[in-house]
Design goal:
With about 950 residues, the chain is an alpha/beta fold. Helices cover about 40% and strands about 15% of the residues. The longest helix is centred in the N-terminal third of the chain and has 24 residues. The chain folds into 5 domains: about 80 residues, Helix Hairpins; about 180 residues, Endonuclease Chain A (Endonuclease, Chain A, 2-Layer Sandwich); about 150 residues, P-loop containing nucleotide triphosphate hydrolases (Rossmann fold, 3-Layer(aba) Sandwich), CATH 3.40.50.300; about 230 residues, P-loop containing nucleotide triphosphate hydrolases (Rossmann fold, 3-Layer(aba) Sandwich); about 170 residues, no CATH class. The strands form 6 sheets. Strands 1-7-6-5-2-3-4-8 form an 8-stranded mixed β-sheet, sandwiched between helices. This is Type III restriction enzyme, res subunit.
Length: about 950
């Protein structure tokens, strides 16, 4: 048997039994051998079949990655031996097997044609918490188990109550149930422990045992406890488990987005047995104490939970030393782990109201000087107040219009002011060791880039409330691909940190088909005229009077729109004001003061209050302009989702028309984002669920559409243009917005639809460009580009579509393009080694420099045979070893060595001269380098964005 190193790094004290060959020496065993009983033979044989089949599969993949084929032969021999034993145990003759195989071959054929079909998965392995909730599976297993072990970080009363009947029924059958939770952060409800304790005690191997893992017992160091695992042994003796993210709470069992994986004892290496052993070890440890009435009474007395049902101001309680919420604690731990791994930047995506600024204030403890960046003065003022509560001992200063003080330990800077060269260049790059970039989706702006490029902090934390890739440009890459958390407003509502909303979709009186559409947006002047008509103003007033709310913000399309509506409402006896991005700061503060105090009932705004300014008392928002993007829509409704005393919900009044971006509304309200960028398809799915009454929403959330608004939505969603034509429209809109033909990389970063969707539809990027010409009559390519595609189109298509488990193949091309002559000249192995060292000297690139194991190790042939080399420790890897690694990985992948390829090969490696040679066509053409470079840049960025999102 051959094995490749897999699994987690570290010692493995767990022992398991497995079926072995008759003459395997006893010396390899951790105990004396034994002979199977007849009843257990089937389960051990089944596990052995899975083990050997998995090892054969690993060897097949190993060869596909460039390895030798010896392992395939050895593992095939092992698998056939096990299958022969199965045949013998079940009294099947070789003749029977051969006859059955021959008959199936005659009827259904073999596997010579390499045919692939899309078929339903034979087993649902993932419970994602929405369409496949974990609760249903737990109830099924409790109904047929004889033993259950539940390990969870916390238990809430509602979840315990919902499982109580199933637990009681299982115990009545004689089941043995063990539950292990913790007192960490006081999140577990004592009422939940009371409920579970009421089920009785363990007697004679039956009944229920509940224990609590103490996070900080007297005289011992603190230790967290985070497992979420549910282990079951069925009546027939078979064992299964669910492992993932769900604790015992109603949200985790049936509402929140969760990932829980189903495991069986026949899975490779018997993970269920490993879980069972580890559960038993912790359950029996001195930290795990029995839960009885005395324990619950003591726990209730000392428990001080930071409640998800409170606002941040209540949680922080006005004390001089605020404490993080459970959510913030989780993110702070992840940030600490990232820094321990050498990360220098990270992005936190937290919905408005979940405490982004407090998170930054907590995380920067231990850093001496902090720079907080924002683009508006109001954001700086609020951030300064927050940081003062966490760091009252630290002096603070401000850089803004009229102020330029960088002397404080905490510096709050307006980006536009700090980015001026006359100011920025006078500040030493090492001044700050921690930088916070608030509303990080702005960080692609040149002013932000200038600041981040100038300073050399130890860590940069980006904060944003908008999770949508299409509107976030390249901020994922700007933050080195590290997304430390992603919490949506839907999760915030379910967790009690935000108020639920009542959404009303109202029919718009504006016919958007009559408004010119240019450059991916409506003509501003024509749109303004349509939205300022008297009829539209009357409908706005009617909606305001018909729906409840005391503090209202209405989002307008222009300064004129906001001013006219404020004047109209004032004439109707409603105290109204308006704010724009050009309102002087002093006047702006005065208007906001009146609004907060109740002197104004409604504010009509444009280019303001989308982000950053916190007025928790806002309980109604009016969306009086067509939706531009999911980000803007989310920012606007987010203004009213914060908790406030006496506020039960947010009212959202949205005018639904036949405008081109109507498809964003429904997915955002449901907390969804399409993976392939097809918002219309996602919107149609949500709309069907809404009409069928099956749309899953948090408690207290209501969505209501006027029937005319539903018809308008359907006209934009269900009756949209064919997919091919729609994609061409998306690309043309981006072209007009950028005012030049978008590259692959620009499409990745700026479009609502990623390039892979275009490539899947049109076969290649060239195919899409040709479709623009033939179907839209638009001049796209010049003669030189056409000739290039004729000669080198196959190679360019290979770059666009080649599989990438690592970045290495594109790095080879990147290095090659950097040398004189590009791919038209051979690339020496020495230059390739030097280029690899240069490219992977970047710490974030180096994280991708691993071999064929999760630990970044590679098995390489050396003078003394095979040895493990940690490639990520590049400074200690010799040129010879690195050359061997490069040959074995990207060079072999490009040249097709050691495997059968059905796609063309465009490279040859000459071992005598140590040269890599491009054997395709077109390398001499003037546009070749540019075309290859465009695709390489796109694939590298797409690869790292994919790692980030996963």
């Amino acid at each position: 048997m051959t094995e490749r190193q897999e699994g987690f790094v570290g010692p493995n004290p767990l022992i398991r039994e497995k079926l072995v060959r008759d003459r395997i020496p006893e010396s390899v065993s951790q105990g004396p051998p034994r002979t199977l009983g007849s009843r257990e033979r089937a389960s051990f044989l089944a596990a052995k079949v899975v083990e050997e089949a998995a090892e054969l599969a690993e060897q097949i993949l190993h060869v596909a990655e460039g390895g030798v084929s010896d392992g395939v032969l050895l593992e095939m021999a092992d698998l056939l031996e096990v299958l022969d034993r199965v045949r013998s145990v079940f009294s099947l003759s070789p003749t029977q097997v051969k006859k059955t195989r021959k008959e199936k071959l005659r009827i259904r054929g073999g596997f010579e044609s390499d045919r692939v079909l899309a078929v339903p998965a034979p087993l649902r392995r993932l419970a994602n918490g929405t369409d496949v909730p974990l609760r249903s599976s737990l109830l099924v297993e409790l109904a047929r188990c004889r033993r259950a072990d539940l390990a969870v970080a916390f238990i809430k009363e509602g979840a315990a109550a919902s499982l109580l009947p199933a637990l009681r029924e299982a115990l009545s059958r004689g089941a043995h149930i063990r539950i292990l939770t913790t007192d960490y952060l006081g999140v577990t409800d004592p009422e939940a422990l009371d409920l579970l304790s009421s089920l009785g005690e363990k007697r004679e191997g039956k009944g229920i045992e509940i224990r609590c893992f103490l996070s900080a017992p007297s005289g011992e160091v603190f230790r967290g406890y985070h497992p979420k695992a549910y282990l079951f042994e069925r009546e027939n003796g078979r064992r299964i488990a669910f492992v993932g993210s769900s604790n015992l709470s109603n949200a985790a069992l049936s509402e929140s987005v969760e990932w829980n994986v189903f495991l069986r004892e026949t899975d490779l290496a018997d993970p269920v047995d490993q879980l069972s052993q580890e559960f038993g070890r912790i359950f029996a440890s001195s930290r795990s104490v029995p839960v009885n009435p005395d324990f619950v009474s003591n726990y209730r007395a000392r428990r001080k939970p930071p409640s998800w049902g409170q606002g941040l101001s209540d949680i922080l309680g006005g004390s001089a030393s605020p404490r993080p919420t459970p959510l913030q604690d989780e993110v702070l731990l992840s940030l600490a782990e990232l820094r321990a791994d050498g990360a220098r930047r990270a992005l936190a995506i937290l919905a408005t109201g979940l405490g982004k600024t407090y998170l930054a204030a907590f995380d920067c403890r231990g850093f001496s000087r902090v720079l907080f960046l924002a683009h508006r003065r109001e954001i700086l003022e609020q951030a300064r107040e927050t940081f003062f509560r966490v760091h009252p001992e630290k002096p603070a200063s401000v850089v803004s219009e009229g102020e330029a003080d960088v002397s404080g330990d905490l510096v709050f800077a307006q980006v536009q002011t700090l980015a001026r060269p006359s100011r920025l260049l006078n500040i030493p790059p090492e001044t700050f060791d921690y930088i916070v970039v608030d509303e990080c989706h702005h960080a692609e702006a040149p002013s932000y880039r200038r600041i981040l490029d100038h300073f050399r902090p130890k860590f940069v934390l980006g904060l944003t409330a908008t999770p949508y890739r299409m509107d976030n440009g390249d901020i994922f890459a700007l933050m080195d691909g590290h997304v430390v958390c992603r919490r949506t407003f839907i999760e915030g509502i379910r967790g009690g940190m935000l108020v639920p909303f009542h959404y009303f979709g109202l029919k718009d009186t504006v016919d958007y088909e009559t408004i010119p559409w240019r450059g991916g947006r409506y003509d501003p002047e024509a749109l303004e005229r349509a939205l300022t008509e008297s009829r539209r103003a009357q409908e706005t007033l009617r909606a305001f009077r018909e729906h409840e709310g005391s503090k209202t913000v209405a989002f307008c399309v222009s300064r004129l729109h906001a001013r006219l509506l404020a004047e109209f409402f004032s004439r109707e006896g409603i105290a109204a004001g308006h704010l724009t991005g050009e309102t002087p700061s002093g006047e702006r503060r005065e208007i906001l003061r009146k609004f907060r105090e109740g002197s104004l009932s409604i504010l009509f705004v444009v280019d303001l209050l989308n982000e950053g300014v916190d007025i928790p008392e806002i309980d109604r928002v009016m969306l009086l302009r067509p939706t531009d993007s999911p980000t803007v829509f989310l920012q606007q409704i987010g203004r009213g989702l914060r908790l406030a005393p006496g506020k039960g919900h947010l009212t959202i009044l949205d005018f639904i028309g036949n405008h081109k971006r109507a498809q964003y509304v429904l997915p955002v309200l449901a907390g969804r984002e399409p993976e392939d960028g097809n918002w219309s398809q996602e919107a149609s799915a949500v709309l069907r669920q809404y009409k069928a009454g099956t749309l899953s929403l948090p408690t207290g959330v209501h969505i209501d559409f006027e029937w005319e608004a539903i018809a308008l939505l359907e006209s934009r969603i269900f009756k949209s243009e064919p997919r091919r034509s729609a994609l061409l429209t998306v690309y043309e809109d981006l072209w007009e917005r950028l005012d030049h033909r978008p590259t692959l990389l620009e499409t990745l970063l700026e479009s609502e639809t990623p390039p892979r969707v275009f490539l899947r539809e049109f076969g290649c990027w060239q195919g899409m460009l040709e479709a623009i010409e033939s179907e839209r009559g638009r001049a796209v390519m010049d003669q030189a580009e056409r000739h290039l595609f004729v000669e080198a189109g196959d190679f360019l298509g290979e770059i666009e579509s080649t599989a990438m488990s690592r970045s290495y193949k594109m790095v080879v091309l990147k290095i090659w393009l950097g040398q004189e002559g590009g791919l038209a000249r051979p690339l020496s192995l020495d230059d390739l080694v030097g280029g690899f060292r240069e490219v992977f000297s970047d710490p974030e690139m180096r994280r991708d420099l691993g071999g064929d194991s999760p630990q970044g190790e590679s098995s390489l042939e050396t003078g003394g045979g095979k040895k493990k080399v940690r490639m990520s420790d590049l400074d200690h890897v010799t040129d010879r070893t690195l050359a061997s690694f490069i040959l074995r990985n990207p060079v072999n992948a490009w040249t097709g060595e050691g495997r059968q390829r059905k796609t063309p090969v465009f490279f040859r490696y000459e071992s005598l001269t140590r040269l890599l040679i491009y054997t395709g066509k077109g390398a001499e053409r003037e546009r070749f380098r540019e075309a290859v470079e465009e695709r390489v840049e796109y694939r590298i960025r797409e690869y790292f964005l994919g790692k980030t999102n996963s």
